[in-house]
Design a protein that fits this description.
The complex is a heterodimer of chains A (255) and B (311).
Chain A lengths: L5 E10 L2 E11 L4 E5 L6 H8 L7 E6 L2 E2 L2 E4 L2 E4 L2 H9 L1 E4 L11 H11 L5 H14 L15 H13 L5 E5 L7 H17 L4 E4 L3 H7 L2 E6 L2 E6 L1 H6 L4 H10 L1
Parallel strand pairs in A: 3-10, 3-11, 8-9, 9-10
Antiparallel strand pairs in A: 1-2, 1-4, 4-5, 6-7, 11-12
Chain B lengths: L1 H7 L13 H23 L5 H8 L2 H32 L4 H16 L2 H9 L7 E5 L5 E6 H4 L2 H27 L2 H9 L4 H31 L11 H12 L2 H30 L11 H20 L1
Antiparallel strand pairs in B: 1-2
Helix pairs in contact in B: 3-12, 4-5, 4-8, 4-10, 4-11, 5-8, 6-8, 8-10, 9-10, 10-12, 11-12
Classes of the chains: A alpha/beta (255), B mainly alpha (311).
């Protein structure tokens, strides 16, 4: 029995006096695609950011690929990881943001090869070759030299996905990847994500409101509300017979 | 159906009679008259002694002074920028000791006049007659006397550079803050360290905000170097002073110095435009035009208007 890719045990997170995560527990197997839905402020994005230690958790335990996130345990003592160790862990987890966050002073290709060259220390020539393949895969083989400002939102988000993939991550986190897009551009990004799920068996955690994507690509759907997971199941379960009243309310509001 | 066919015929270009601006012509006339009057008086007034100005403009003493001014500007700006980046990064550090030290530095050096700082460094020998390089309470490796190490030029360079560092720190800090938080988050999520993120992602994008005020500072520095004349460094102003203290052509030599200052700031202004253009890449869809391109475009548009009217 292999370790789950992500395991959370009663994860808590506070911002000042506001408790955003109030005990999140879950296990995600390698190769699974999990969608997290829920109203804004329910803690979905925060939970995602905890997984790659962009946020520090206050209580509970979080493992990625069998290793504790942000800490090392020796006996019953926890030691904070050094910055360089945190960076190494983050390098293996890809993240795609709602607002793309492409590096504005770099072309699409430069965005994609930046981390492979400077973090993984891959030879630039190899990184460029790999970067072009990746940009081709997300359908942007002809936009290699374009700056982010010259690309549409959907194109920018696809570059961002290629940039994350360039680090050959074992886990991909998507934080509302299509929420900032014009409606007609959502499809192209979802198509790339579906191909990751079906053709490459990438482990993915997707915070999204795109129920169509969830139905097609997700193995599981989690519903979060008020800092907790209140319901989970297959996409069919959510479409046909959600049990919780809050889930029914939420789904009827977004569908 | 009928309206559709009408729509497909492109209507004639609008040919309207432009609005007249008589006020502009009046203003232009007044301005031209004033310029003429000024130039005329300068040309007629024998006391300007243009011959003297022409004579000294390219004299070797003035040229040496100008070179020294450039050296002072370049070295003190280099110190200022390096120090400014360091202080800005320190100021934004989560370590309170580092940010506190940076705050203290800026407080001291921004809070006292440059002229006082120049005099202070010039007189540093009074406080520390000797400098030695070594380990405190341990062996020393080298020994210098203050007067040989801190020459007037070095004193001026230090004073201007250290003072500039305080101003540059604030400029760089503003630039760093202007880069959206998402940029460093994206860099972090790719496993880039804090330092790598700063060097590769944040600072290059902060440049767009940092460059214009830095250009200002450089131009300002070029002129501020004239203060160093008080400690007898023969830069442009002091060279001019040395000459007019002998021949009493005060105004003429000040005009000579001013012509050089103006020439140098002009070169800097043009350079700044191209540096801004370089660091502005990626921020807009089109590259900003260079001055030469704009001139060309203007000339072309005039010609096009002419030919349009001819038709």
């Amino acid at each position: 029995m292999s370790e789950p890719m992500v395991k959370a045990e009663s994860v808590h997170k506070r911002f000042g006096r506001l408790e955003v995560l109030k005990g999140v527990s879950l296990e995600i197997e390698s190769g699974q695609v999990v969608c997290i839905i829920g109203p804004s402020g329910s803690g979905k994005s925060t939970f995602l950011r905890c997984i790659n230690h962009l946020e520090k958790i206050d209580a509970g335990r979080l493992w990625v690929d069998g290793e504790l996130v942000g800490y090392r345990q020796a006996g019953d003592k926890l030691y904070e990881l050094r910055d360089s160790e945190i960076c190494e862990d983050r390098a293996e987890i890809g993240m795609v943001f709602q607002s793309f966050n492409l590096f504005g002073h770099m072309t699409a290709l430069e965005n994609v090869i930046e981390a492979p060259v400077h973090v993984k220390k891959i030879r630039k020539r190899d990184a460029v070759a790999q970067g072009k393949v990746l940009l081709g895969r997300v359908g942007l083989g002809d936009k290699v030299d374009a700056y982010p400002a010259q690309l549409s939102g959907g194109q920018q988000q696809r570059v961002a996905i290629a940039r994350a993939l360039a680090m050959t991550p074992k886990l991909m986190l998507f934080d509302e990847p299509t929420s900032a897009l014009d409606p007609e551009l959502v499809g192209e990004v979802l198509d790339v994500m579906k191909s990751l799920a079906f053709d490459f068996k990438t482990t993915m955690i997707v915070v999204t409101h795109e129920m169509g994507f969830a139905r097609e690509a997700a193995d599981r759907v989690l519903m979060m509300d008020d800092g907790r997971i209140i319901e989970e199941g297959s996409p069919e379960h959510f479409f046909q017979a959600p049990t919780e009243e809050r889930t029914k309310q939420f789904l009827s509001a977004i569908l | 159906m009928a309206t559709e066919t009408v729509d497909q015929v492109r209507p004639d270009e609008i040919k309207a009679i432009p609005v007249r601006h008589p006020g502009r012509w009046v203003a232009t006339a007044i301005l031209l008259f004033l310029v003429f009057a000024l130039v005329n008086s300068m040309a007629q007034n024998q006391r300007f002694e243009w011959g003297i100005i022409r004579h000294w403009l390219f004299s070797s003493r003035i040229l040496h002074g100008a070179v020294l001014t450039i050296e002072l500007t370049v070295t003190s700006m280099a110190i200022g920028i390096a120090l400014g980046v360091l202080l800005a990064v320190m100021r934004l550090s989560p370590n309170p000791l580092l940010s506190g030290a940076s705050w203290f530095y800026i407080w001291i050096f921004r809070g006292t006049p440059v002229l006082v700082q120049i005099l202070f460094w010039f007189n540093i020998a009074a406080l520390y007659p000797h400098f030695s390089l070594g380990i405190p309470l341990g062996p020393t490796f080298a020994h210098f006397s203050a007067t040989s190490l801190i020459t007037p030029f070095v004193a001026g360079m230090l004073a201007l550079g250290l003072n500039e560092g305080a101003y540059m720190a604030e400029i760089v800090r503003a630039g760093i803050i202007s880069v959206p938080e998402g940029q460093s988050q994206a860099a972090q999520s790719l496993g880039m360290s804090r330092l790598l993120t700063m060097r590769r992602i944040v600072l290059p994008q902060a440049m767009r905000v940092i460059i214009p005020p830095t250009g200002n500072e450089t131009i300002s520095m070029l002129k501020t170097t004239s203060l160093v004349s008080v400690i007898a460094v023969a830069e442009l102003t002091y060279s001019a002073q040395l000459i007019y203290s002998v021949n009493y052509r005060t105004i003429q030599l000040l005009i000579v110095a001013s012509i050089w200052y103006l020439a140098m700031t002009t070169v800097l202004t043009i350079g700044q435009h191209y540096v801004e253009r370089h660091f502005g890449r990626g921020s807009t869809r089109d590259m900003p035009v260079t001055a030469a391109q704009r001139l060309k475009a203007n000339l072309l548009s005039i010609r096009r208007e002419d030919s349009g009217q001819a038709r």
